Amino acid sequence: MLFRRVLLGLTTRSLRHSSTQQSKAAQPVNDQAGNLLPDYTEEERLKILQAINENGTNEMISYDITKARATKLHNWKARHGPLQELSDILYVEGFGLKAATKFFKSLLAPVGSGSTGEGAENKPKAARVAPFITPSLDEAQRQRISSTVGVRIGVTSVSWARLEIGSNDAPCLLTHWHHHELNDKKLHLSELSRRCLYVTHQIPQADCYVLESPQMAQASSNPGSIDQQNVNIQKAQVAAIMSYSLMARSDAEENKANNLFYMRRFLSARLFNHLVGTERVSSEDTIMAMMRTHYNVEHQLPRTESPQSLRQQVHFPADLRLIFSQQERYQRELLGQAFLLGLAFTRLVLLQDPQSIALVTRNSKGSVPSEASSLVS
Predict the structure, then answer these.
(1) Mean pLDDT of 210-227
(2) What angle do CA 48, 19, 218 make, to 5 degrees?
(3) Which end of the chain is more exposed for a tag (fewer CB within 10 A), N or C?
(4) In the structure, what pLDDT confidence band is assigned to residue 156 with cuts at 50, 70 and 90?
(5) CA atoms lying within 13 Å on the CB side of residue 119
(6) SS3 233
(7) How far is CA 105 from CA 20, 39, 109, 335, in A?
(8) What are phi and psi of 63, to 5 degrees?
């Protein structure tokens, strides 16, 4: 019994010492990050702390903060108590320097400025439009792009579709459409690299290449979570190898302009109304509807033309339509996703079509059913 008590005492002191050491180790990191925050007067500092500590989730979301961050901040206060310093917010998951600075700025804004208060209730909230692609594309480069390749990367296959952007009222032209199987089993990295490089050489040249932003595995307190288990290692390796190979095609003399862009996940599925929850539905009907236009078939029913301009539509050459029809069903689906990825990039980023942008912004969900039919016709 005496031995157990001594052992318990040693264990308790060891845990306390470890906790103290971790707290001391984290403190300098927090101080360094806090030094990067804007300089606030003592009055501003107290106002920010008072607003954070005295308001709940429902009150905080009226400021420049998402509901998810407001909930995490509320839960953090419930566990650790009120914030003592502004830099304490950096301990809360989801708050970096950028998010914290924007949040603090909205807390300091006057009541009638439109950020909070009665003036904001009468004023409709502006649509939160997140960037469609990463990295960003400047206006000069956007004007120069005349061709793009949408690349759909799977676990065991790669599909791509090349589009040439139509000039004036001419439709876009689909010039290449191909699906390539890598393998259906786990490959060693050396063999996987060799096959990826071979596939990359098959992808035609274009002004830019578009991939869907890959699912990211983020460090969390629950390493065995479903989100992290769902990140396929081989798919990530294929995406990394092919991304590097495609980026190597860029012309170093053109001010090191990016030629590879990642589009937000599910954005093309949202644009063409193929997303149910977080699951994609088949895109084959949409592809077939796009093919039924007056420049793709000889006989078309009257009054079936899309209200969109021809520049936003696509011409499918007869040989590519035949290739598409001869593929297996799952291959047609992957080809369709690659094609729609490039077309979504063309409409949202290159042509900046207002109707397409409205379909994927948060404040226009009510208009999606009435407008989606014209986008996919």
Answers:
(1) 64
(2) 65
(3) N
(4) confident
(5) 9
(6) helix
(7) 34, 12, 6, 46
(8) -100, -175
Burial 126-158, CB ≥16 within 10 A → b, else e? eeeeeebbeeebeeebeeebebbbbbbbbeebb
Q: With a cut of 90, say whether residue 234 has pLDDT above it.
A: no
User: If you count them, how many residues does the chain have?
Assistant: 377
**How far apart are the C-alpha atoms of 21 and 376, rounded to whole Å?**
60
pLDDT band at 349 (very low <50, low <70, confident <90, very high): very high
> 3-state DSSP call for residue 212?
strand
Helix, strand or coil, per DSSP, at residue 249? coil
Segment 173-181 mean pLDDT? 94
Three-class secondary structure of residue 260 per DSSP: strand
Please report the pLDDT score of residue 337 as a whole number: 94
Q: Dihedral of CA 319/321/325/331: which sign?
A: positive
Mean pLDDT computed over every residue of the chain: 77
Q: Which helix (H) or strand (E) holds 76?
A: helix 67-80
How far separated are the first and last CA of the chain, in Å rounded? 81
CA dist 10 and 193 (Å) reads: 53
- Token digits for 219? 């460090």
**What is the distance between the alpha carbons of residues 147 and 194, in angstroms, rounded to a whole number?**
27
172 phi, psi to nearest 5 deg? -65, 155
Asked if the peptide bond before residue 135 counts as cis, ω within 30 degrees of 0, the response is yes
Write down the number of H helices and E strands in the chain. 16, 9
CA-to-CA distance for 14 and 25, rounded, in angstroms? 16
Phi, psi of 343 (to 5 degrees): -70, -40
- Give residue for tokens 């209730």: 121
What CA–CA distance (Å, rounded) separates 153 from 11? 51
For 122-126, the CB contacts below 8 A with 24+ separation are 124/363, 125/363, 126/363
Residue range 53-97, pLDDT digits in tens: 998 888 888 888 888 889 999 999 999 999 999 989 989 988 888
Q: SS3 of 20, please?
A: helix
pTM equals 0.60
The three-state secondary structure class of 33 is: helix
CA distance 163 to 375: 17
DSSP one-letter string for 300-320: --TT---SS-GGGSEE--HHH
Per the DSSP assignment, residues forming a β-bridge with 172 are: 314
